[in-house]
Amino acid sequence: MKIVTIIGARPQFIKSAAVSQAIIDFNTENLGETVEEIIVHTGQHYDSNMSDVFFDQMNIPKPKYHLDINGLSHGAMTGQMLEEIEKVLQTETPDWVLIYGDTNSTLAGALAASKLHIKVAHVEAGLRSFNMNMPEEVNRILTDRVSTILFCPTDSAIENLEKEGYKNLDITIVKNGDVMLDASMLFSAFAKAPSEKLPNSFLLATIHRAENTDDPNRLKGIFKALNTISEEKPIVLPLHPRTKKYIEKYNIQLSPNLFCIDPVGYLEMLFLLQNCDMVLTDSGGLQKEAFFFEKFCLTLRDETEWVELIENGFNVLVGADYNTIVDAYNEKSRSTPNFSMDLYGNGAASRIIIENLLKFTI
Ligand code: UD1
Ligand code: UDP
């Protein structure tokens, strides 16, 4: 079985690392079938601390194709990726195209493959924020619809698809759990401290969502709240390049207790997750990782795709309003939820993907 994996943004490197490892493990077991994986890096993320570091730390096989497409408007980026991925797929003629999540790289891969009648497997399918202003929501909906098999991490993802009528479509739906849990289980023993000098006791924050960075009121509200909270407990914030750009543009002042550092590798991130007291983020992936590492999460958004975290009291939506964020921090810094709940599988999500792709390869 031949798979072309299309990745390009930071969270996709992390997710695909777990699946690439499962492919290597499967091939080592010599079960009579061999899985060949060819990796295409679209180039969407390109700084070494947004890309290379994950390939190095997580043993991701070297991409055979690097398309170097980045820094463009959504249409131009997706369009150029579509054109270049099509050429790769015509050369490689794989059984499957494997795509992850909801970025422009995901949608370009799904469109290129489906138009060539190549089967598409979408990992992290069925998630919805119900906010069509998010570029990710558009990418998810369109990607799911042209896929052949949808790997859903949660029950709510499956329910979303059912409500959209997927039962009436010739699309296979599999609940496989979360490949990010697999990744955290594979690598957490190798966690290492970032090189910067950091406080021993801290909160961990990340911000990068377009709806926060591109709106000066939202970004100012969030940073005003982080400045206030950091007076009580220092905050470590690995800064996404997009956010760095907007902090400078809006001339936002940062408290000295807000330790803004460059984006870190996955192993450093695991260290920060293991050692922080709480997570404040607008990241999709980090909301789940907070749960994996038993940390309460304040989500700096108005909605989330990971609704089970909210429903079970592990996460609260605080948006971008100063008072709401500070009040939630003051309330939740004293809470100690019991995190022993199976929401995202048991670390075998990647293996289930391989087994199903083999099963549905004709
Ligand atoms: C993208 C995804 C988002 C995902 C995020 C993960 C889309 C629509 N968005 O958002 O869903 O959560 O990745 O991090 O696909 N930049 C650099 N260096 C890099 C990468 C980006 O400087 O290595 C800067 C560039 O100025 C670029 C901007 O960040 O224009 C935004 O990058 P882009 O890939 O367009 O979107 P993200 O905000 O990273
Ligand atoms: N991450 C990382 N270094 C950082 C920030 C995040 O390794 O400096 C990891 C994080 O632990 C998670 C993933 O990147 O595994 C989340 O990606 P991101 O927040 O960029 O995207 P999203 O999940 O929101 O799509």
UniProtKB/TrEMBL annotation:
Pfam family membership, one: Epimerase_2
Residues covered by the UDP-N-acetylglucosamine 2-epimerase domain: 34-357
Q: Which UniProt keywords apply?
A: Isomerase
Kindly give the InterPro entries that the UniProt entry links to this protein.
UDP_GlcNAc_Epimerase_2_dom, WecB-like
Listed GO molecular functions? isomerase activity
As for family, the record states: Belongs to the UDP-N-acetylglucosamine 2-epimerase family.
Q: Which NCBIfam families does the annotation name?
A: wecB
The name under which this protein is listed is: UDP-GlcNAc3NAcA epimerase
